[in-house]
Design a protein that fits this description.
Elements (H helix, E strand, L loop, with lengths): L20 E6 L7 H4 L4 E6 L2 H12 L14 E6 L1
Antiparallel strand pairs: 1-2, 1-3
Length: about 80
């Protein structure tokens, strides 16, 4: 498969690699963003190794500097293996 846009961020050397370790991102039951995204909204991110997944999980779990002091992110992160 050809990738024509640089912003796709696809590394051609690993594009077909199996990715058995994942992270599920979802919203808690009482999150008001569910009114916009729907009750079944989730995103899955897959990684080729457990260490890459764990590093990404830690980075996703951190409160980054772009939030306002009054913002409290409520995402639910879950480690997956297939």
């Amino acid at each position: 498969m050809d990738y024509c846009h640089q912003h796709n961020l696809v590394d051609q050397t690993t594009a077909g690699q199996e990715r058995p370790f994942g992270i599920r991102v979802s919203l808690p039951a009482n999150d008001t963003l569910r009114n916009v995204l729907g009750d079944d909204w989730e995103r899955l991110h897959w990684y080729p190794s457990e260490s890459e997944r764990d590093a990404a999980f830690e980075k996703m779990a951190m409160r980054h500097g772009y939030y306002r002091d009054t913002d409290t992110p409520t995402q639910v992160l879950e480690k997956l293996s297939r």
